[in-house]
Specification:
Structural class: alpha+beta
Radius of gyration: 22 Å
Length: 69
């Protein structure tokens, strides 16, 4: 039976695996395709106090973007 400290260290080491959010390179080394459904622009994030509140975006040309679930 492992001592508690060794068991805890083993569990923490296993939980810390993975890429840690880092980008994973393309295995073939080829460029990745461009992302789909991307909106690009400048604007302001606004908090709206309506039905519990939400954050929306207002573009520089006054177009309003609201979150959708």
């Amino acid at each position: 039976m492992l001592p508690a400290a060794a068991l805890l260290a083993a569990l923490l080491a296993g939980a810390c695996g993975g890429t840690g959010g880092a980008a994973v390179p393309n295995p073939e080394g080829e460029p990745l395709p461009p992302p789909q459904n991307v909106v690009s622009g400048t604007g302001t994030v606004r908090y709206v106090e309506l039905e519990g509140g939400f954050y929306g975006l207002v573009d520089d040309d006054s177009t309003r973007y609201i979150p959708q679930t």
